[in-house]
Amino acid sequence: MTQHALRADAERRVVYLLDVGSTVERRLLEDWIARERGGRPEVPCEVVVLPSSRRPRRGRPQPQLEACIAAEDDPLLSPLRVAWLPADAPGGRWRRLVRLLFLGDPRDPGRLRQRWLARRPERFRIVAADPATVSTLRRRWQEAGAVGGESGGLADFVTRQAYLALERAERRLRGLRYKVPRFVREEILSRASFRAGVARLARELGRDETQLLREAAADLREIAANHSPHVIDLVAQLIHVLYTRSYGEALHYDRAKLERIYELTQRHPVVFLPSHKSNLDHLVLQYMLHENGHPPNHTAGGINMNFFPVGPLVRRSGVFFIRRTFKNDPLYKLVLRHYIDYLVEKRFSLEWYIEGGRSRSGKLLPPRFGMLAYVVDAYRRGRAEDVHLIPVAIAYEQIQEVREYAAEQRGAHKQRESFSWFVRVVRGLQRRLGDIHINFGEPISLAETLGPPDQTAEPNPDEQSLEVQKLAFEVAVRINRVTPVTPISLVTHSLLGVGDRAVTLTEIGRSLANLVDYVRRRHLPTTGDLDLDTPDGIQRTLDLLVAGGVVTCFDEGPEAVYLIGPDQHLAAAYYRNTIIHFFVTGAIGELALLRAADDDVTDRRAAFFEAALALRDLLKFEFFFADREEFRYELASEMALHDPSWEERLDEGPEAIGALVRRIRPFNAHRVIRPFVAAYQVVADVLAGWDPTKPLELDTFYGRCMALGKQYHLQRRIRSAESLSKVLFETALKLAGNRRLVDPDPAAPEALAQRRRAFADEIRTTLKRVDAIGVLAASRRAGLLD
How far is CA 159 from each of CA 65, 125, 153, 163, 228, rounded to the nearest angstrom? Predict the structure, then answer.
């Protein structure tokens, strides 16, 4: 309550609602009230003590509050609270962490500490929330869906509103870093729309409504985050200790872009959608936001991560847990929808991985649509005027999980998350792995993309909605667009292109010169100066790869030579694949040029684009391609980098096309496309040999693929072990399924077998063209080609 409020309602009785947990806090507030009143007895007032919002609530509010609510004079209710302020902690982060661990929450000191702090005015502030009359609060209560006029229900509502008003007022004092929801369960469970949804579901399922409501409350308790400012600070310090074990002290990001995102969060809810490369992804993003004064995101996590002590800790710092699958649980879907509605309506920031899980190959995975469908549905029904999606690329120079990913691609089972697993992750963060870079893509406005919301629309979080899928695809494209090129990704890109042959530092330098020049001509995002123009810069990157076991160095001869280490091709490919999307369009162009030069072609421009579009279709489950017209434009721009008159060269015939191909720098098809189509060849050959009248047994099928792949590798029909990947086999089978080659056809087995053989022949033809580009690349390395 302020002097201004007192003057505005000089004749109205004022009831101060004190949110106190100790006699010290009550004394400080009563002293403040006495000072504010200034000895003016003509202003009637009263004091009502509420149960402390910082302590578990026991019982209902005091009868004194109910009497105030029932009074006929419509008093003005003015909530008050003591805000305890942390001391400016001297020393480094370790000291701050120790203080948080052993002294507890500085915003909620114990009673003995309160007595000491009360003597130091700089360590506390009196927080006065905006006052409201009982009649105003009663109207809000009724609008919220309350039934009847019992003062007991209204008293609970008034108490909760007082706490929320104090939270908003205290936030102005402390900043938005601690903007967290309060009474989420109470608010959602009391909403008329929620109760109506449960009632409707009870009728549809033939269930008891009261029992279903209890189950809904249990589901909400399982899902919802339970924020604690103390734990938010504590987790931030623990994150810093954790990631700096292997990475640099500083996270690298664009502060100007982050400030623009901060401004967005003041007006609209935002959704952070990061790429998922490492277990550290959410942690480093959370730490960066905390250090810059952002509130913690409400982050969707898999229920598999809800193990002690990680689950309770991260839940109190902003993670909410959802089940892996709940398609057949309509009550759970109802609860989750209302929870997302609440977060969007209250403008809380959300976060989840658009890929669903961590990428084992380094490439961005196909997006998952479930959570995005819930947010789009909340916007569409008018829960917010707009929602902004923030694509986020998190890039590491190296990650500790790369060996684990390689093993899983060879068929090993994923390690189950548990406390022992978490201990192994922490212990693994010992070797220096480089730096972490966080890049933000251009935000996507749902209002601009989908048009205005319709508040009369019925709930329908449809994952199959075309607009949801287009949004997810656009998010993935924008993540790829801002993923930075790192020195390690370029060096592995170069080494994988030479197969199993060891190369000298000089040879690596020649190969990298074309790659670095290409990156600069394309103005691709990088992690700063690539430092690959000099032998010393290349040597530093090679030393990091040697230390990580990805690259082997033989230095017993006159000159050191380097090659991908034994069984490390998948690890090297992981780093290369983080940037492979920048090179795939050019690689497709190289192969399309070879097709345009064939003798049986009459319209060479048409043949070029037809071949390119066929390759785009072949690789559509691996990469995020633009639509057909945009892809044609991108392909033309790529070719123009090498020859502005490239289309005229097509018209001049095979010899001119061959000269155009030889001018391309660098060649990429053998490095970019070969690993995928080689894996596809294995799957196509196994599929061609499978009985067309029998369904696939997946374990047996993938076992045959791995065995045949190893045979082809020994025969040198597969050039690199990176093609022996279960992840690639799965994508190839997905492509075959898309072409209706997987399901058996007892009615026409020979026709299916013929289509399967045609599929294998198509891939084999593509591989021959890739090999032709590989020969040109080898000729250039040997000095036979400029």
Answer: 9, 21, 10, 6, 20
Record the tokens describing residue 329, joined without a space: 């649980």
Which residues partner with 125 through β-bridges?
83
236 within 8 A of 286, measured Cβ to Cβ = yes
Query: Among all chains, which residue has been given the structure tokens 């960066």?
Result: 288
Which residues face 564 on adjacent strands?
A: 551
Burial class (CB in 10 A: 0-12, 13-18, 19+), 430: exposed
- The owner of tokens 């997946």 is 698
**Which of the pair, 650 or 230, is modelled with greater confidence?**
650
Separation between Cα atoms, residue 25 and residue 31, nearest integer Å: 10
- What's the CA gap between 18 and 14, in Å, rounded? 12
- Mention every residue, 6+ apart, whose C-beta is less than 8 A from residue 253: 288, 437, 438, 439, 440
* Integer Cα distance of 33 and 14 in angstroms: 11
Residue 270: φ, ψ to 5°: -125, 155
Least Cα distance to 273 among 344, 349, 197, 329 occurs for 349
Residue 582 DSSP label: G
Helical ranges in 206-326 per DSSP H: 209-223, 229-243, 255-267, 281-291, 310-315
Structure tokens at 318: 């902003």
CA distances from 448 to 270, 385, 604, 653 (A): 14, 11, 41, 47
> Dihedrals φ, ψ of 81, to 5°?
-155, 155
Q: Could you tell me which of 339, 291, 285 has the C-alpha nearest to residue 314?
A: 285
Say if strands 132-133 and 270-274 run parallel, antiparallel, or are unpaired: unpaired
In this structure, what are the phi and psi dihedrals at residue 369, rounded to the nearest 5 degrees? -110, -10
Residue 322 has pLDDT above 60, yes or no: yes
Half-sphere exposure of 333 (CA within 13 A, CB side): 16
Closest of 339, 340, 317 to residue 221, by C-alpha = 339
- 626 exposure class (CB count in 10 Å sphere: 0-12, 13-18, 19+): middle
Confidence of residue 42 (pLDDT cuts 50, 70, 90): low
CA gap 283, 288 in Å, rounded = 9
Which whole-number Å values give the CA distances from 62 to 23, 137, 160, in the listed order?
Answer: 17, 18, 14
The two counts, helices (H) then strands (E), for the chain are: 34, 16
Percentages (nearest 5) of helix, strand, coil residues in the chain: 55, 10, 35
Token pair of 567 as six digits: 């069984």
Q: Amino acid letter at 686?
A: V
DSSP class of residue 131 equals P
Helix axes 726-738, 402-409, angle to 10 degrees: 50
Q: Record the tokens describing residue 156, joined without a space.
A: 């609970």
Angle of the 192-205 helix axis to the 330-345 helix axis, nearest 10: 170
Task: Tell me the per-residue pLDDT of 159-180, one tens digit each, with 9 for 90 and over.
Answer: 989 999 999 898 888 888 888 8
Whether the upstream peptide bond of residue 86 has omega within 30° of 0, thus cis, is no
Distance CA 395, CA 508 (A): 24
- Look up residue 649 and give its two tokens: 């060269």
Instruction: Record the pTM.
Output: 0.90
- Give the lowest-confidence range in 26-40, 253-267, 436-450: 26-40
CA torsion, ordered 253, 256, 257, 259, to nearest 10 deg:
110
CA 505, CA 561: separation in Å to the nearest integer? Answer: 7
